[in-house]
Amino acid sequence: MFDKEIYIRRRAELKKSVKSGRILLLGNGEAPMNYRGNTYSFRQDSSFLYYVGLDTPGLMYLLDIDNDREYLLGDELTLDDIIWMGNLPSLKERAVAVGIETIVPTSKLSSLIDLNRIVHYLRPYRYRNQLILSELLSKKNDEILNGYSVELTKAVVAMRLIKSKEELMELENAGKIGYAMHIVAMKMCQPGVSEQEIAGTIEGLAIADGNRVSFPTILSMNGQTLHNHDHSGILSLGRLMLCDAGAENNNHYASDFTRTTAVGGKYSEKQKNIHNIVLEALNASIAMAKPGITYKSVHRNAYKIIFESLRDLGLVKGDTEEALNAGVPALFMPHGLGHALGLDVHDMEDLGETYVGYDDEIQRDTLFGYSSLRFGKRLQSGHVLTVEPGIYFVPQLIEKWEKEKINADFIHFKEVKKYLNFGGIRLEDDIVITDAGCRPVYEERLPVTIEEIQKIIIY
Ligand SMILES: [Mn+2]
Over the stretch 2-57, which tens digit does the pLDDT of each residue have? Predict the structure, then answer.
């Protein structure tokens, strides 16, 4: 938790950007895993953390703009809670710690709500909070889901997207843990070792030094499956291991790195070639990222590098601009270049990717590949983003394009099919946009050239 002045300042700024009515921020409750008493480990709502800072379940925050009052809603611990869970600070003490003076029992929430005045809330993503809003506002679930406040959403996104100095320190800390996770994964990338053992070991590091992993670890020899959570493989020579993993630190900030390593550090010619193309796309994207540039154009430039380099390898052909307009590189990289990173690994995705990554000026493309870009906006100092180009050979996608002659003028399918058992390579770094350009969130960069990676694996 930060100093209480930070939360007071953030709430004051929020109040200024929403004109009237009441703002209701719902914290999360405990979520049962397989029975009521056996819960998933608690994760507070990120916007609630950002404005209220309190990391305990069952809380709500109400800001009455019209009457200039604010309330923390929650219930004092019962004796039973204390016996089983320990003697936590009282609700009053927790409220004071974040600069809120008035506490109100949860059951009194409806008495503070005037249904004739607007109640601004963020789009709920948990059923529990949908139910609370549904009962409070006497609306059906779908009305609740569609009735979120656009004004509040835009205000929250504008604030949370620009990371402050103290937030950057938290992100750096998350980066440091993520760095350690990936070094261990690289060292374990030896023939005969199971994917599960590596995934479990690095997730243990995230828990030992932070709060948890920032998302379920993606670790597999089948890197062509973009979010592969299956860890049943045993590493074998000749294969690649794609590891996309990060940590959520104790203050809930995330890191998100990807490295792809050849098992035992032994790269084939094909693997070296593809690795170096992805690396070139990564480095060029980082070199290009600076205030004023749209991330959409950085994504397109990564596609350009991938297309032209694969043309040099004889996998594709034709004019670069025509190929980019037709979406040819999406066959090899069917995802976006990156996303915002913060309290969430896909920062504020719950509020709607379109509010986070796009605006009136920059809108999402509909063409396959480009349409998966989560963040296309003009970059500003203080944005924190991932940069994660990749090249994959997805057999089903290649088969479909060949069969349906999609972009057939640009693709040498016979050559592409020589890579059907290749898998995929993704390389991902986390950057913060500065006044001058950008810098890594965590200063030490994970080994990324083949030589650097081999030094870690073959030790
Ligand atoms: Mn990512």
Answer: 999 999 999 999 999 999 999 999 999 999 999 998 999 999 999 999 999 999 99
Residue 132 makes CB contacts below 8 A (sequence gap 6+) with: 26
Residue with structure tokens 């995929």?
A: 424
Q: How far is the CA of 273 from the centre of ligand 1 (A)?
A: 23
- What integer pLDDT is reported at residue 229 of this predicted model? 85
pTM to 2 decimal places: 0.96
Query: What is the 3-class SS of the chain, one letter each residue?
Result: CCCHHHHHHHHHHHHHHCCCCEEEEECCCCCEEEECCEECCCCCCHHHHHHCCCCCCCCEEEEECCCCEEEEECCCCCHHHHHHHCCCCCHHHHHHHCCCCEEECHHHHHHHCCCCCCEECCCCCCHHHHHHHHHHHCCCHHHHHHCCCHHHHHHHHHHHHCCCHHHHHHHHHHHHHHHHHHHHHHHCCCCCCEHHHHHHHHHHHHHHHCCEECCCCEEECCCCCCCCCCCCCECCCCCEEEEEECEECCCCCECCEEEEEEHHHCCCHHHHHHHHHHHHHHHHHHHHCCCCCEHHHHHHHHHHHHHHHHHHCCCECCCHHHHHHHCHHHHCCCCCCCCECCCCCCCCHHHCHHHHHCCCCCCCCCCCCHHHCCCCCECCCCCEEEECCEEECCHHHHHHHHHCCCCCCCECHHHHHHHCCCCEEECEEEEEECCCCEEECCCCCCCCCHHHHHHHHCC
Residue 185 CA to ligand 1 centre (angstroms): 17
- Which amino acid would we find at residue 356? V
User: Ligand 1 mean position to 192 CA, how many Å?
Assistant: 28
CA distance 284 to 290: 12
| Structure tokens that stand for 447 in this block | 């080994």
Cα 318 to middle of ligand 1, angstroms = 31
CA of 254 to the centre of ligand 1 (A): 10
What is the predicted pLDDT for the residue at 228?
A: 80
pLDDT at res. 91: 93
